[in-house]
Amino acid sequence: MSNPTSNFFESLGKPIKDEYGRNVGTIASFIARPNGQITDIFIEHGDGEITRYPSEQIKVNENGATLFSTTKLKVDSLCNEIPLIWRKDQALRGLIEKKKVPAELSEELHNAFDSAYSQLKTEAQIIAESIDKQIAACSKRIADLNHALVNLEIEHEIGQINDNAYENSMLLIQENMRCIKTERDDLELMKSKLSNLLLGENTHQITPPQVTAEQPALEEPSSVSSSLPEPPVIVYVKNVNTKD
Predict the structure, then answer these.
(1) Which of 117, 100, 177 lies closest to 142 in space, CA to CA?
(2) Is beta strand 15-18 parallel, antiparallel or unpaired with respect to 38-44?
(3) Which of 31, 100, 143, 159 could form a disulfide with 95 if both were Cys (CB 3.0 to 4.6 A apart)?
(4) Which conformational region is residue 234 in: left (phi greater than 0), alpha (psi within -120 to 50 degrees), or beta?
(5) Domain containing 193: what range?
(6) pTM (two decimals)
């Protein structure tokens, strides 16, 4: 297995792209802990500006370095954490019913899960609103590029632009439009994931468990049934009706 740190060192001074294939800049340097773990990476964006990014946003492999958006990383995290918190609370409920959790501890644990669950739901709503704005921005950029293509076609048609310049410009615009469309499709998919999480709260709310007044002391650990309730099902739906 290759060493990720070695792969990164080999990428120093080389170009880095975003997840949709667009050039982002050049890897300039990094910050590492005494144990060698890289925590932050510096990228020069081609205009002289150098920006610092957390290492979690950057993946390096034999094909090069890729910078992932914070939105995608956050959505992936929420889609893992929200069902996990819900399932843990259901496990707690089952243990309470089996009298394996003292009464004075059950409410404390439930409140901790409930607080974490509510915070994650709020974060999901904020990210969903941000995604809506990003989708709108992508649509605006695609519309602008369509205008650019039409004007290019017109001026080439009347002989104002030679074939070589026309073909080069067409390739640039079409490639950029492809990347933006891919980004918009990806954002639509992320929005669908979050929508299913937020809609699911109506049927998968964390509710206070019923605890009897008297509970025996915590028993010695024993085998706990693995048949826990399934977490909320997330159905990923891609919007295929979007028109440019």
Answers:
(1) 177
(2) unpaired
(3) 100
(4) beta
(5) 71-200
(6) 0.73
